[in-house]
Amino acid sequence: MATHRENGGFHIDTVARIIRKTLLNEYLALPVAAAATWLTHPSSSTHLGHLLDLASRFNINLTVLTLSQLARAALYLGSAGLLLSANSLLNKWAANNWTASRSGEWSHWEREIVVITGGSSGIGAHVAQGLLRRNPRTTIVIIDLAPLRWAPPPNSEVHCFQADLSKADAIRAVCARVRDEVGHPTVLVNNAGLVRGRTVMEGSYADVEVTFKTNLIAPFLLIKEFLPEMVRNDHGHIVSVCSTSAIMPPPDIVDYAASKAGIQALYEGLGMELLYRHNAPRVRLTNGVFNFIRTPLVVGMPTQPQFLAPLLHVETVSEAIVEALYSGYGGVIYLPGIMSYIAMLRAAPVWLFRAGVHRTTAQLGVRFPGLQTIDEAGGVQAVSK
How many other CB atoms sit within 10 Å of the CB of residue 69? Predict the structure, then answer.
């Protein structure tokens, strides 16, 4: 869920969190329902009399009818809360192949080797820093075209490799170096990405090619490089950074949205392969479906209602990724949380989804400056984040 940082803490996730912990809290509502039901029973007449006397002292008009209504309302609310908890639990176990982590499997992060693409700054840098705050002995490998723009803590195991992830031969070479010089990664955070900000008609061949190569093909190839060892050990975690544009593709970034829709398919299909083809149910997968984030890739303030779809802070996104890694379980991270329900609307009639939800992306009020310099061969010459 979004945090106190977004829109001053006033957004739908905050309201949902409060309601979930009060009205829809089954641990509160169901005992209230049971107590109110018991007090309306004839055998509890003495206790009911005491309760009515106590209520009258505070000028509260408490009747048997009111208690019955309270019991019914609390039962409905508690049942709804129970269903939400059951749904979350089933989602968790389904996303993790109904397989628990081994005892202490994710408790010793000094044994893990974490590769983060695009980690020189932005989300990737904050993920690396968050992991090091939790365990300074975690081995971090940054793969980025840009040089590292943050200072690793003293004595930390941070390795930096510069590579253009839009080029397959560069990916193959840098992955070989990582294995030879550091070891086999156990965690892969596919964070690197770019957006050109041009319509389908206006974008050049190179714009389209480098977008798909960096955002979609590179994650595929990196997984191909590092997954075999994870499968052999039935231990690993792959995080993919997706986007709400995969659900509602806006104008001007259709190539970006299509690449992120591919990431969604990669997450879902790879999970099936791990279970049914490779017998590696404990290799965890996490997919982050995020709304617009405060990075240099996006300029301006979205016209979307900030109460419903707040502009996310980098720290909020990185903390959610680190929390998912430390949990030892995979799944889908929706930020803000309402996006999980927007995703469900994809199953609504086309006219309803397009007219009621998708059309809101036509005038976003933000620009995508396309900070990278692209050569006509489809390579990234420089990256500015």
Answer: 12
Residue 228: alpha-carbon gap to chain centroid: 25
- The CA radius of gyration of the chain, in Å to the nearest whole number, is 25
Q: State the pTM of this model.
A: 0.90
Instruction: Show which residues are catalytic.
Output: 256, 260
For strand 283-290 and strand 331-335, is the pairing parallel, antiparallel, or unpaired?
A: parallel
Task: Give me the DSSP letters along 173-186.
Answer: HHHHHHHHHT---S
- The enclosing H or E element of 117 equals strand 113-117
The C-alpha torsion from 319 through 325 and 328 to 330, rounded to 10°, is: 90
Measured from the Cβ of residue 113, the count of other Cβ atoms closer than 10 Å reads 21
Query: DSSP labels for 139-154?
Result: EEEEEESSPP-SPPPT
As a whole number, mean pLDDT of residues 60-68 equals 67
Cα 92 from chain centre: 13
Q: SS3 of 206, please?
A: helix
Residue 60: both structure tokens together: 């509260």
User: Cα–Cα distance between 187 and 225 in angstroms, integer?
Assistant: 12
Residues 6+ apart with CB under 8 A from 331: 91, 92, 95, 96, 286, 287, 324
The predicted-structure confidence for 282-336, as pLDDT tens digits, reads as follows: 999 999 999 989 887 778 888 888 998 899 999 999 999 999 999 999 999 999 9
Nearest to 245 by CA among 183, 282, 298, 181: 298
Length of the chain: 385
Angle between helices 254-276 and 218-233 (to 10 degrees): 20
Alpha helices in 150-240 (DSSP H): 168-181, 205-212, 218-233
Asked if residues 264 and 242 have their Cβ atoms less than 8 Å apart, the reply is: yes
